[in-house]
Structure formats: structure tokens, C-alpha cells
Design a protein that fits this description.
The protein is built from six helices and six strands. It is α+β, with helices and mostly antiparallel strands and 183 residues long. The protein has a four-stranded mixed sheet, sandwiched between helices. Strands 1-2 form a two-stranded antiparallel ribbon. The chain is globular.
Length: 183
């Protein structure tokens, strides 16, 4: 009988947790060049996030270095960068292995990179559809950034020209992190 109540309690807890999960995180995404999936809610709920559409062959591709530096500096403070390669602007390799190689070997990316997705248009991925609805804007080019607070709300969106080390961006990120509940 105790096992029955334990199972019921666990089911109720997981259902409650899912109900409390911000809409923007109610997705399961596949890691780049892998079959492993990540439940965004279970992994990132309560964290400040920077969601970025990336591309391997773009003039903004060197931003990977700045994004990795941000991730390294703030990851222990409840922050993560989530990268989503996209071929919407015809600057991403169709071979995920080559994309992963560029990220890891050329730019030393350790922040989470996920499966290539559409970030605009008729076949836009549901995550990016939601980001567009919440922010009122869609990516205009590669390395478009959405800053999401610990409650799953879009704080701000940033165009491709805003570099990860931009002082105004950093100030907003630090202010957002300061409001985040400490775990």
C-alpha cells in the first residue's frame, strides 16, 4: 500500500511540475549530432536562458566564442545558452556532424547545442513560434538572441549585431540573473 501512495505522490508531483513549467520550456529537443533528447523543462526551468539561432557559415559565426565565454562566466549562477542551428538563411551545413565539429573544435563550444530547426516561416519550430509570440519579433538573421528569465518570460530580444560581450546586453543579463530565485 505504501508503494501505491508513493507512485501516486510521484505522479502528482511530476504533473504539478509540468503544469508549473513555463510554456517556452515545454519542449523536448534532440542534442546536436546525437539521438539523446533533453526535456527543456526538467533541465532549464528556473534558469535564465539565452536562446540563439546559429549558423556555421555566417559573418556572425565568431559570436560562438562570446557565447561560450558568457556561458562559462555565468553557468554557475543559473544561466545557460541554448544554441539552435538553422538553415533558414542558407548558411548552415546540412551535415550535423560538420556543424558539431565546427562548434566544438573551432570555437570550443560547451554550451548546449540542439538539433537544426526552422526559426521562421511556415515550418517554424514550435519553440521559435512561441518565442516570436512572446517577444513580438522573429529572427531577422543568424545569431538572433532571446533572453529568457527564470519564469520563462522573454526579457528582451537582440539582433545579430548585438555581440555577447555588448555592455548593455551584459547589464540586462546581470540584472535578470539578480532577480532569479537562488536555488
Amino acid at each position: 500500500m505504501k508503494k501505491f501512495f508513493l507512485v501516486i505522490s510521484l505522479l502528482a508531483t511530476s504533473t504539478t511540475a509540468l503544469a508549473e513549467c513555463p510554456d517556452v520550456l515545454k519542449f523536448v529537443k534532440r542534442k546536436l549530432n546525437s539521438q539523446e533528447t533533453v526535456n527543456l523543462c526538467e533541465t532549464y526551468a528556473g534558469k535564465t536562458l539565452l536562446i540563439v539561432n546559429t549558423a556555421s557559415y555566417c559573418g556572425f559565426t565568431p559570436q560562438f566564442e562570446g557565447l561560450e565565454a558568457l556561458y562559462a562566466k555565468y553557468k554557475d549562477k543559473g544561466f545557460s545558452v541554448l544554441g539552435f542551428p538553422s538553415h533558414d538563411f542558407n548558411q548552415e551545413d546540412k551535415d550535423e556532424g560538420k556543424t558539431a565539429e565546427l562548434c566544438e573544435l573551432t570555437y570550443g563550444v560547451k554550451f548546449p547545442m540542439f538539433e537544426p530547426i526552422a526559426v521562421r516561416g511556415d515550418d517554424v519550430d514550435p519553440l521559435y513560434r512561441m518565442l516570436a509570440e512572446k517577444s513580438g519579433t522573429t529572427p531577422k538573421w543568424n545569431f538572433y538572441k532571446y533572453l529568457i528569465d527564470a519564469n520563462g518570460e522573454v526579457v528582451e530580444s537582440y539582433g545579430s549585431r548585438t555581440k555577447p560581450q555588448d555592455k548593455d546586453f551584459i547589464a540586462t543579463l546581470e540584472k535578470t540573473l539578480a532577480k532569479q530565485p537562488q536555488s
